[in-house]
Amino acid sequence: MSLPTPLPDLPPSLRAALRDAAWELVDIGKSGAQVWRVTAAGQPPRYLKRASGARVRELRAERDRLQWLQPRLPVPAVCGWAEAAAEGGADEQAHGWLLLSEAPGRMACDPAFGDGPQRVVELLAEGLRRLHGLDIADCPFDARLAQRLAQAAWEIRAGLADEEAVRAELGVSAEELLARLTATRPAEPAADLVFTHGDYCLPNILLDADGSHVSAYLDCGRAGVADRYQDLAIGARSVRHNLGDEWGERFLAAYGLRPLDRARLDWYETLDELF
Questions:
Q1: Of 68, 116, 156, 274, which residue is most buried, by most CB within 10 angstroms?
Q2: Among the listed ranges 92-106, 211-225, 246-260, which one has the minimum average pLDDT value?
Q3: Does 267 reside within a domain?
């Protein structure tokens, strides 16, 4: 889709950097932000993400995590940031813009990899082990359950939780689901916390063109130190959705954690309904 250049609401601090650019709207993903692929003569492609209202907080979280991850993992580089606070501090009128480099590779759900689901599953498991192997000694991002449940409550209060989807899927309100999850919260293994992605699904993982390795991790706004089951649950669900039910089990087997706590997998998968 072609859009006016520059975008009407582009902030001054980014307008010069994106002058004379061509814009393509990207409609893949459910981040809650608008995303454009931006190309300009003599410059590599970049992506601009724009969030409004309560979503600005999520975009800011993504910026901070990408900056921490930059020397540790292949992730998009932060090329620019702008934030406009609303007059009087009204969150619903705030705006944020995050400019990112283009990461190499194709989404793991790309049809180009459709003939080799076994290899895709192996690469996703390998990529997750690499992520979980990061040194968390100096990681400032806490994604453990106290924070995740507090974030879920904030999502509900801010009107960001998909009430309709929660009711359709589980037959309860988002508030009722949060109460149920809080009451059945699993114990977290203090000695086995890892760096988690937070939304480890196929569209957020790029594979290099020949399908030999994970080339980039995208949409890291929920990343942080947490229980590895957070990623295992969402990863297995995404594999089932994109590749077929049998491949979810193969993904879990390829990751190599044995024995698996099935109740914990189910709990984290259900928690994700609130995000």
A1: 274
A2: 92-106
A3: yes
Q: Contact at 8 Å (CB) between 2 and 23?
A: yes
Whole-structure pTM value: 0.93
In the 8-state DSSP scheme, what is residue 142?
B
Question: Residues with Cβ < 8 Å from 107, sequence gap 6 or more?
Answer: 28, 202, 203, 204, 205, 206, 207
* Average pLDDT of the chain, as a whole number: 92
Q: Does 89 share its domain with 111? A: no
Asked if omega into 6 is within 30° of 0 (cis), the reply is: yes
Alpha-carbon distance values, 249 to 1, 111, 183, 270, 271 (Å):
38, 21, 28, 18, 20
Residues 217-231 have pLDDT tens digits of 999 999 999 999 999
Say whether 199 is catalytic: yes
Residues 163 and 244 reside in one and the same domain: yes
